[in-house]
Amino acid sequence: MMKKNLALSLQLKQVSYAYEGKPILHNIDWTLQGGEITVLLGPNGAGKTTLLHLLAGMKPAQQGSILLNQQVVHWQDQQYKKRIGYMMEFPFQYPFLTVIEIMRLIGQLRDVPTGQLEESIQYWLKHFLLESYSNYPIGALSQGTARRVALASQLLHEPDILLLDEPTNGLDPDQVIIVRDTLQQYCSRGALILLSTHIMGLAEKLSHQAAILRNGRIVYAGESDGDLESLYVASK
Ligand SMILES: Nc1ncnc2c1ncn2[C@@H]1O[C@H](COP(=O)(O)OP(=O)(O)OP(=O)(O)O)[C@@H](O)[C@H]1O
């Protein structure tokens, strides 16, 4: 069993968010810890992606704040962003770039030194069985392959906070296992991992902590060693 990394925490304090006046997240109070995988569950439209956007610094919280190790972080803080890997639900907007091109681009944007970047790219390509696709355009890949590229791309700068929006969508069972094992290994180094998923089996196998978001409110947050599905149903 991995150890908690008490030196790393991410906290939402009274965070609210609305789209065009329509409230989506309501006064969220929630703390995530390094060395743990936390899973975020909730029905379609509950606000999971919006919450991940706020943690990734893609947009500012309209009320409340986000704290890294008890210090408030500004949503555009570049030092904060360098510590984050964010695998989005629909990750790639550049279908004509090849796998290696997109990985280089993302690594460069994250300031990974060139030599280290090439080494890291080769490591993760091999790890996710992607070597034979390195010169394929992203747009020519299956959904599952593209998602593995997306995850590999977010690990190049070795972030200690990893946010993942439905990371196993479109993956076959073998690939789900590779992703699961990768996240467990990565977490055991002390990283903080938060993923949203609709797949209860994955959530139960993978996570240490779980939260259930319904209508923009966290209705459960705690350890996920029990029967998450029953908890989920009971939280309606
Ligand atoms: N850019 C936007 N403008 C207006 N409304 C939005 C925008 N993005 C999301 N919403 C709305 O906010 C609500 C929450 O969306 P969000 O994507 O955060 O939910 P989710 O829990 O991730 O859903 P899913 O499980 O379907 O991915 C939804 O009602 C959605 O329609």
TrEMBL record:
Pfam families: ABC_tran. Residues 10-233 form the ABC transporter domain. One of its GO terms (molecular function) is ATP binding. Keywords: ATP-binding, Nucleotide-binding, Transport. The keyword ATP-binding applies. Belongs to the ABC transporter superfamily. PANTHER family: ABC TRANSPORTER ATP-BINDING PROTEIN (PTHR42711), ABC TRANSPORTER ATP-BINDING PROTEIN NATA (PTHR42711:SF5). This is ABC transporter ATP-binding protein. It comes from Paenibacillus lentus.
